[in-house]
């Protein structure tokens, strides 16, 4: 079974707790591509949360490319890799294209990113 725990006393809603934990398990490689997730009802029962909460989480993670549903076959970790890293790569490529279009040199881009990292 997945190592996911819902803190019912947390200010963070169960939906968000579940979403974050699944994404983190995928990012760390603890949930790899093709891994079948529990059924909505079974997972909800195990976690002590409403089935609609699990279903909503699965839907959102499917929309963001983390999970894929194969009809009655179930819900699986998507084959497209770590969605967090893919999103970061996409954002970085867009940033580089934008600053290059503004006439900023690659050296200046690196300096800007370094300054932002130090400030943040």
TrEMBL record:
Alphabetical list of SMART domains matching this protein: HTH_GNTR
HTH gntR-type domain residues: 12-80
SUPFAM superfamilies: Winged helix' DNA-binding domain
GO molecular function: DNA binding; DNA-binding transcription factor activity
Entry keyword set: DNA-binding, Transcription, Transcription regulation
Stored InterPro entries: Tscrpt_reg_HTH_GntR, WH-like_DNA-bd_sf, WH_DNA-bd_sf
Gene3D superfamilies, A to Z: Winged helix-like DNA-binding domain superfamily/Winged helix DNA-binding domain
Any single Pfam family the record assigns to this protein: GntR
Name under which the protein is recorded: GntR family transcriptional regulator
The species this protein was found in: Rhodococcus coprophilus
């Amino acid at each position: 079974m997945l190592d996911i725990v819902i803190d019912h006393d947390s200010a963070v809603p169960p939906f968000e707790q579940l979403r974050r934990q699944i994404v983190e398990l995928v990012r760390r490689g603890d949930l790899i591509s093709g891994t079948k997730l529990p059924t909505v009802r079974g997972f909800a029962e195990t976690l002590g949360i409403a089935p609609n909460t699990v279903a909503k989480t699965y839907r959102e993670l499917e929309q963001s490319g983390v999970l894929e549903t194969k009809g009655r076959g179930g819900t699986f970790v998507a084959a497209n890799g770590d969605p967090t890293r893919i999103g970061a790569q996409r954002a970085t490529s867009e940033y580089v294209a934008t600053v290059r279009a503004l006439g900023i040199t690659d050296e200046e881009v690196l300096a800007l990113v370094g300054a932002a990292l130090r400030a943040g």
